[in-house]
Design a protein that fits this description.
globular, disordered C terminus, 11 domains, 8-stranded antiparallel beta sheet, Protein Transport Mog1p, Chain A, 1160 residues, 9-stranded antiparallel beta sheet, single chain, alpha+beta, VWF/SSPO/ZAN-like_Cys-rich_dom, Zonadhesin
Length: 1160
């Protein structure tokens, strides 16, 4: 304390000679007295130096006011005052109020800081501190990524680990803005200290941001983990995520990589290969298809880009900048906010990079990125590493349907061994060919030394490619350079960048005169859309052709900025002279220069599409009149059916909608093949008609195997089970309650009313399981179809039909029997012939009974009997009337079925017997009698259809169908009705039309209802969800709802305070995800889960508490749309028990500072 007296004495000496500024001296005197009082206190209590500092701070403020007065009075003392202030501030300059991080704290009710509140869609630490400084508070706190709280105290709150305040700020993802009920606290001061982050050791500072180095992914500060990288190059050679090489020369379309999990970042990458020149040994990548964010991006040869079929001029920004497509060096890059990047050079090389979070969750030729060398597996998981043709087996298992090719063109997946002649073998080892890839002193020496095993793999690929083109010397140099540049890209991924091209060795020539080659140029070149892109780019540098100084990119050309084109209302760029067509193809809009700017000029074409054509995008992505699938022509004047013109249908097929369709009862492409099918039907009480046409009647009410694969059919294995029930306890007959179809790990349940469950969860129509199998409506039936040709049809009441290709006929078992053309189906599961037994049917049924289970439908106490109902003479006469089962009698000239009865008389007699049997059981109840009669007649009508006989059998007095709103009945409903997912489905349908209800004109099928197109719901991961559908996350903490915003259907996600009961869990109840009680407990799953009958062996399931009631979803959890919301509140939900966090003092911000809620 003593040394601090000296400055005071010095001040006295300086002040004494100055007599004129009287007021100033008085104030200085006051300053002298205060420290003396302090010193006295210090002698008594030595532990209070902090109070002294506070008073000293207040003293600093007074000279400022004094200076203002001095300015008005006199100018001379100014210099002396400055010295005086400097002397006082120098000792305390380090202690000035500089904004600094205090820590991470709890912030549950009551709020820690509530003096002021701000939420902003671009929140940063600096923005919050400036806001709180204006409010004159001591502390600033950030929370939930975008909220800012101001206050003067942080007492009574528990301090937490900094890792709990780790949510990235919306305005700067490298800064941390609190967490869920966790607040990052900063001390407010007059100046904000620079918040430049310290970059991770695997990152570097690029344009002010820490960015992970190539081959790594993370925030650049705390995390930079190894990415998953897969490459396809050359003829092609596929280098998997885990570093294994796969060589095969297939010309089909293949699944390169795909995410296994269904979420907002789900994606797939497919490649289409082709032959080039006269060489029939090797293939190269022709197109790359990327599907993500409900967008289908196609990159074609030369770098042309289509999005959802429409040609796009680069650069492109979609889904609020979550998806970008642009040129980066010699590549076209697809960049996503989820961290997935796909690069294609437009010639042969494809590179896919995914974040580390996808490790072990991928599939495709690229493997799964699990860190193990086990990628030599087929799609079904079969290890083929020891097979001679392993590469072809892998490639073929990942072949995909191809819409980019003529349907008649046959592709092939081959494993052609490449042999190299001795002369060529010596040549390829020369340093200027492939030799340098093994030379530790060559032009690639730095990389060869760093990754020798990888260099060896690329050397083998180079030799293979060169030997494949031995007979085409003109292409050898191109093939060599393609192989070498692939290796150079691999080196760059490993952090080794090389200048390897020269004027005489693989030069990269720029086609545009306004471009120059650079071995390392900006990853985001300047464009007409963003001329300053390079100055803020954080992507890695690339080699390629770049615009000269003063030029910018306009799609693939370099022009002066004054020559840039137009932007339409969607933000799409169009160069000058380019066109875009109207929705009906009657008008065109041309981008032209007008004065100093540009604009679209409307041009009327006066053209109309042919009746068999649609105004849509052609293969080049240009909107024009295109003939429908199955027709050929110019789209305006001609659209002729392909059948009979370009190709002929199979002799057992016919032309439908321009396509060859196999006749009823046959399966195939309609051109090369139309194979027979086997059909099994269960209808009525039920009566089972086997694949080979035998009838089995039994009234069991258990669960049974209808048909299943008995031998390994690879991906075509299936199992169809039916659960029967009795409509009343006294009934002698039973009916089908629901159908279960098993494909792989998927269990599809078709319930009453055509409700669909997949693995216990409700699904909406149409449903597509990654093109492996689909569920859709087809006439009066719900149809499950697999790509193996196996289909199951269910009318939602009692009729089930199983259809399989004949080639699988001997590989199945079940009540339906085998399809071997022999009447030998009256056998048990063990193969015992019981045709001569009295209880034949019950013996067969009980042998195929599925193990009993408690499904709430009596399966645990069911029975299988042969008790056939008795029919009195009166009942028999009643049911054989012409408006009942009598319409199936042979010789009934008034029957609408007479044509079919004459064709399949024996089958008709069996259906008549079944109808009488069921009707007699319900003859006393008119309504039930009518229902069971219609079930049997509907089943027989389906049988007629399989034999090629279409019947209009319904009458106003005979089983009329009542259609729902916006529907009408038709006896020829398309087998592929127009839906919200595919409004043009019926134009490319190969399924036979049948009777049923169809949507009125102007309406589309939304699940099982018909709605106007503007009321269609949302599509996510290829599947459909009607408007207002609510999806709940696996832990019940997040709700996603399909809503309509500005004429567009989008998903909006919010978090809810749904904490399940300790004896509950997040599970499924009637197909809906919610909190449910564990087994042995009863209640709502949230507030109550009681054990009505305590069991000593029961162990209650204790679950961890759910996360906070509401939160801002991480960027990795966001999908392709965004929406604005006011102060965040939990959605109104029966399960929500906690109110919105913001305090009373919290006010909703205006639109300018409104946070964005996560939209999926």
């Amino acid at each position: 304390i003593k040394p601090k007296k000296k400055p005071i004495k010095k001040n006295r000496k300086e002040i004494k000679p100055k007599k004129k500024p009287i007021k100033k001296n008085r104030k200085v005197k006051k300053q002298k007295k205060k420290p003396r009082k302090k010193n006295k206190n210090v002698k008594k209590q030595k532990k209070k130096p902090r109070k002294k500092n506070k008073k000293v701070k207040k003293q600093k403020k007074k000279p400022k006011k004094k200076n203002k007065k001095v300015k008005k009075q006199k100018k001379k003392p100014k210099k002396e005052n400055k010295k005086e202030i400097k002397q006082k501030t120098k000792p305390t300059k380090k202690n000035r109020k500089v904004s600094r991080y205090v820590g991470c704290y709890d912030d549950n009710k009551p709020r820690m800081m509530f003096k002021a509140f701000l939420q902003h869609s671009k929140m940063t630490i600096e923005r919050c501190i400036r806001f709180c400084a204006k409010k004159r508070t001591k502390f600033a706190g950030l929370e939930f990524k975008y909220q800012c709280f101001c206050g003067n105290s942080i007492s009574n709150k528990r301090k937490r680990k900094d890792s709990e305040c780790s949510l990235p700020c919306l305005g700067n993802g490298q800064q941390k803005c609190g967490g869920v009920w966790r607040i990052s606290v900063y001390k407010v001061g007059p100046t904000v200290r620079s918040l430049k982050p310290k970059c991770h050791k695997r990152a570097r500072l690029r344009n002010g941001k820490c960015v992970c180095k190539r081959g790594y992914y993370g925030d650049g500060i705390n995390v930079c983990d190894k990415s998953c990288t897969c490459m396809a190059s050359g003829d092609p050679h596929y280098k998997t995520y885990d570093g294994q090489m796969i060589h095969f020369m297939g010309t089909c379309k293949y699944l390169l990589t795909k995410s296994k999990e269904n979420n907002e970042c789900s994606f797939s990458v497919e490649v289409k290969n082709e032959r080039r020149g006269r060489n029939t040994k090797v293939a190269y990548t022709r197109t790359v298809d990327i599907k993500i964010y409900k967008k289908a991006v196609r990159i074609m040869q030369g770098g042309k880009v289509l999005i959802n079929g429409q040609k796009k001029f680069l650069p492109v920004q979609e889904n609020n900048n979550k998806l970008k497509v642009f040129r980066s060096g010699r590549f076209v890059q697809v960049w996503t906010e989820c961290g997935i990047k796909v690069n294609f050079d437009g010639r042969h090389a494809v590179y896919v990079v995914t974040p580390p979070k996808f490790k072990g969750k991928l599939e495709g030729i690229c493997g799964d990125c699990n860190g193990r060398k086990d990628d030599f597996k087929t799609r079904e998981g079969k290890d083929v590493s020891k097979e001679k043709t392993k590469f072809a087996l892998i490639g073929d298992s990942y072949s995909m349907s191809d819409d980019s090719e003529d349907p008649l063109t046959r592709c092939e997946t081959e494993d052609v061994p490449v042999q190299c002649e001795p002369r060529m073998n010596n040549l390829v080892n020369e340093p200027h060919i492939c030799g340098d890839l093994q030379n530790v002193n060559g032009r690639f020496s730095a990389c060869v030394k760093a990754i020798p095993l990888t260099a060896r793999d690329y050397y083998s690929s180079c030799v293979m490619d060169m030997c494949s083109y031995e007979g085409e010397p003109k292409l050898l140099n191109t093939v060599k350079c393609s192989s070498l540049e692939s290796f150079v890209e691999e080196c760059a991924e490993s952090g080794i960048v090389m200048k390897w091209r020269t004027d005489n060795f693989c030069p990269l020539k720029c086609k545009d005169p306004n471009m120059i080659y650079k071995s390392s140029g900006p990853g985001c070149p300047a464009t007409c859309i963003d001329p300053k892109a390079s100055s803020k780019c954080t992507l890695e540098e690339r080699e390629g052709c770049f615009c000269k100084q003063g030029f910018v990119l306009s799609d693939d050309k370099c022009i002066k900025q004054s020559e840039c084109g137009c932007k339409d209302r969607n933000g799409d760029y169009f160069p000058i002279g380019s066109k875009k067509g109207s929705n009906d193809c009657s008008k065109e809009y041309v981008c032209k220069k007008r004065g100093r700017g540009t604009r679209f000029i409307k041009v009327t074409t006066g053209k109309k599409c042919h009746r068999n054509a649609l105004c849509t995008y052609d293969t080049d992505g240009v909107r024009s009149c295109q003939c429908k699938k199955g027709f050929i022509g110019d789209g305006y004047k001609t659209c002729e059916a392909l059948c009979g013109k370009k190709y002929k249908c199979n002799k057992r097929a016919r032309c439908v909608n321009g396509q060859c369709v196999c006749n009823n009862g046959l399966y195939g492409d309609g051109i090369n093949s139309c194979e027979g099918v086997c059909t099994c039907t269960a209808a009525g009480d039920p009566h089972y008609r086997t694949f080979d046409g035998q009838m089995i009647h039994f009234m069991g009410d258990c669960k049974y195997t209808l048909s299943k694969s008995s031998e390994d059919m690879d991906e075509c294995n299936f199992d169809v089970q039916v659960k029967n029930y009795k409509k009343r306890e006294s009934a002698t007959v039973s009916f089908t309650r629901y159908v279960e179809v098993h494909f792989g790990k998927s269990i599809i349940k078709l319930d009453q009313g055509k409700t669909v469950f997949v693995n216990g969860e409700v699904k909406y129509l149409p449903f597509n399981n990654n093109d492996q199998w689909t569920v859709s409506l087809s006439g009066t039936y719900l149809k499950v179809s697999s790509r193996c040709g196996i289909s199951v049809l269910w009318d939602g009441i009692s009729v089930v039909r199983v259809v399989i290709p004949k080639k699988y006929g001997a590989m199945v078992t079940g009540i339906c029997g085998k399809c071997n053309g022999q009447k030998d189906d009256l056998r048990t599961r063990e193969g015992i012939d019981v045709s001569s037994k009295e209880n034949t049917f019950s013996l067969i049924g009980s042998s195929y009974e599925v193990s009993k289970s408690n499904d709430g439908l009596g399966s645990e106490s069911c029975s299988t009997t042969d008790d056939l109902p008795e029919c009195s003479a009166d009942a028999s006469r009643l049911v054989l009337q012409n408006d009942k089962c009598g319409v199936l009698k042979y010789g009934n000239q008034n029957s609408p079925f007479k044509e079919c009865i004459n064709k399949i008389a024996a089958t008709a007699k069996e259906y008549l017997e079944s109808c009488v049997m069921d009707a007699c059981a319900y003859s006393e109840n008119a309504d039930e009698l009518k229902q069971v009669v219609c079930m049997n007649l509907n089943a027989f009508a389906g049988e007629c259809l399989t034999h090629g006989v279409t019947i209009k059998w319904r009458r106003s007095s005979l089983c009329p169908i009542t259609c729902k709103n916006n529907m009408r009945y038709s006896d020829a409903v398309s087998g592929c009705p127009a839906t919200c997912v595919d409004p043009n489905a019926q134009n490319k349908c190969k399924d036979e039309p049948s009777e049923g209800c169809e949507c009125l004109p102007g309406f589309l099928l939304s699940d099982r209802k018909c709605v106007p197109q503007k009321e269609c719901g949302c599509i996510r991961n290829g599947n459909y969800y009607p408007l207002n559908t609510i999806l709940v996350s696996d832990d019940c903490t997040r709700r996603t709802q399909c809503v309509s915003r500005n004429g567009e259907s989008i998903f909006v996600t919010s978090s809810v305070n749904m904490k399940c009961h300790p004896n509950g869990m997040c599970g499924l109840e009637k197909g809906i995800r919610k909190c449910v009680c564990a087994e042995g407990f009863e209640g709502d799953g949230i507030r109550q889960c009681k054990n009505p009958t305590p069991r000593p062996t029961a162990t209650p399931t204790t679950l961890a508490a759910s996360p906070a009631p509401w939160r801002f979803i991480d960027d990795s959890e966001q999908n392709d749309e965004e929406d604005e919301a006011t102060t965040p509140k939990p959605p109104s939900d029966e399960a929500a028990t906690t109110k919105s966090p913001p305090n009373k003092a919290t006010k909703p911000p205006d639109k300018a500072t409104t946070a964005k809620t996560s939209i999926l």
